[in-house]
Amino acid sequence: MTDLTSFSAAELAGLVARGESSAVEVTQAHLDRISAVDDRVHAFLHVDTEGALAAARDVDSRRAAGEPLGPLAGVPVAVKDVLTTKGVPTTAGSKILADWRPPYDSTIVRRLRAADTVMLGKTNMDEFAMGSSTEYSAFGPTHNPWDLSRIPGGSGGGSSAALAAYETPLSIGSDTGGSIRQPGAVTGTVGVKPTYGGTSRYGLIAFSSSLDTPGPCARTVLDAALLHEAIGGHDPLDSTSIPAPVPDVVAAARLGASGDLTGVRLGVVREFAGEGAEPGVLAAFRAAVETLTKLGAEVVEVSCPHFRYALPAYYLIAPSECSSNLARFDGVRFGLRVGDDGVRSLEEVMSATREAGFGPEVKRRVMLGTYALSSGYYDAYYGQAQKVRTLISRDFATAFDQVDALISPTTPFVAFPVGARTADPYQMYLADLFTIPSNLYGGPGISVPCGLADGLPVGLQVMAPTMADDRMYRVAAALESAVGPFTPPAL
Question: For residue 476, what is the domain's CATH number?
């Protein structure tokens, strides 16, 4: 029998719909793959074997009864461990939430269930989504299936590594400054940050509320679009949710797969040219630009002068919001509780719990954000960063008056060795240099594999205007159709 883990999500959905394979067979194949390789990859924090098989059996029985099912019925999906799942451990990669089992599903998980997908489990991540390598997880690092000595990106490295290792055909991530797109780039997979407000944040454990965006991860652009369609759309439970339907991203992906970009105008961001990307990354990007031109796109240079300030602005805004959001983890209401011996004060218990429960990167960002919000410094730091954010948004608006979408490398470098940058936070932060601007703006971005450098994947990023997610899918699918898939060495 053909290995079911080698199929795309769209292909698996077709096999199940036609009765050529059962949802149970598809699910068991992926559970077996996880058992075979995840001791080396460590993409998963929790595998819900019983829950997954029960959901698969339900799909099969309902199909046998002739009941209508969703377009992704029976297709497995893995979920970043930052989204609440009822009765299933949800840790955000932190000791402070170890063994916490939420009493409710996030909207994303609820929509996955409504689409009749089969949830395999929860994937590893940098603690509270703060990191670029998945080395800051309290439960150990995830490894890149292309080279197990290297990082899979972050913060959602578990979601991307599970795809590259063929442990799942679909996964969910969250993107605050590049945490879906950057892992996609370094693992040779597709990662999508939808328009902010286009996917619900209800049940997403908050890091930076004005930036966090859940989104789809997949091995193909069409699969990502199908998952995007399933999870997107207005949610009254999220006050920042946009009351508008998801653009027709599936039709755009199918249109792009024809390989015709005639009439599409793309802009290369001038300010990114001198930002220290590795030669191999630049070479792969330039080759991809030539490919896009051959497909009919007009490619021009566009200036976004304030993009160079995006990184420092982000590292004031995001930590400030993180400082506020993480105040809820106090050892009182849920999660870890340390030092409660009946003698210590509440303040002492809270301090001991946070000292034991938060890792060094979380502590670093909480302290930075608390300082930036403190009396006498708010206007000089957080206030100024918000002004820069406005200027960056204006740069995007000006650029989109000239072009349909912007393109750049997704990340300045390929996957680096585990441990190579943990001692230098600034070098780690540079991983998101090209992805952060679209988070500050709120527009969508996608990373699609465009080539190899030193035998490791390189991603091309497409950025589009807000609520024009379909534009980026068309461009990404066209490039994918021309350059083909990139398959990691066998594990």
Answer: 3.90.1300.10
Q: Please pick, among 155, 159, 160, 174, the residue that the annotation labels catalytic.
A: 155
In a domain, 61, yes or no: yes
163 occurs within a structural domain:
yes
Q: Exposed, middle or buried: residue 148 (CB in 10 Å: 0-12, 13-18, 19+)?
A: middle
Q: What is the largest CA-CA distance in the chain?
A: 73
- Asked if 211 contacts 386 with a C-beta cutoff of 8 angstroms, the reply is no
Confidence of residue 274 (pLDDT cuts 50, 70, 90): low
Candidate list 8, 21, 22, 80, residue with the active-site label: 80
Is residue 209 assigned to a domain? Answer: yes
Task: Give me the helices (H) in 194-309, please.
Answer: 221-231, 249-256, 279-294
Domain extent, residue 81, equals 4-260+471-483
Contact indicator for 71, 139 with CB cutoff of 8 Å: no
For CA atoms 24, 26, 31, 35, the dihedral sign is: positive
Q: Which of 106, 137, 159, 179 is catalytic?
A: 179
Radius of gyration for the alpha carbons in the chain, expressed in angstroms and rounded: 21
Residue 239: active-site member: no
Residues, the chain, total? 491
| Nearest to 156, CA basis, from 49, 52, 78 | 78
399-422 tens-digit pLDDT: 999 999 999 999 999 999 999 999
For 221, residues 6+ apart whose C-beta sits below 8 A from its C-beta are 190, 253, 256, 257, 446, 448, 473, 476, 477, 480
Q: Residues 118, 76: contact at Cβ < 8 Å?
A: yes
Q: For the segment 46-100, what is each residue's pLDDT rounded down to a tens digit?
A: 999 999 999 999 999 999 999 999 999 999 999 999 999 999 999 999 999 998 9
pLDDT in tens, 299-357: 999 999 999 999 999 999 999 999 999 999 998 888 899 988 877 888 899 899 999 99
Phi and psi angles of residue 213, each rounded to the nearest 5 degrees, phi first: -145, 110
In the residue annotation, 80 being an active-site residue is answered as yes
Nearby residues of 126 by Cβ (< 8 Å), 6 or more positions away: 93, 132, 133, 134, 135, 136, 137, 154, 155, 157, 179, 361
Q: What CA–CA distance (Å, rounded) separates 136 from 40? A: 17
Asked if the structure places residue 357 within a domain, the reply is no
What is the distance of C-alpha 325 from the center of its chain? 20
Interatomic CA distance for residues 99 and 122, integer angstroms: 12
Instruction: Tell me, yes or no, if 122 is annotated catalytic.
Output: no
Question: What tokens were used for 459?
Answer: 């991603």
Ranges of beta strands (E only) in 230-274 are: 265-269
| Number of structural domains the chain divides into | 1
> Cα separation of 355 and 367, whole Å?
13
Token pair 């490398």 is found at: 409
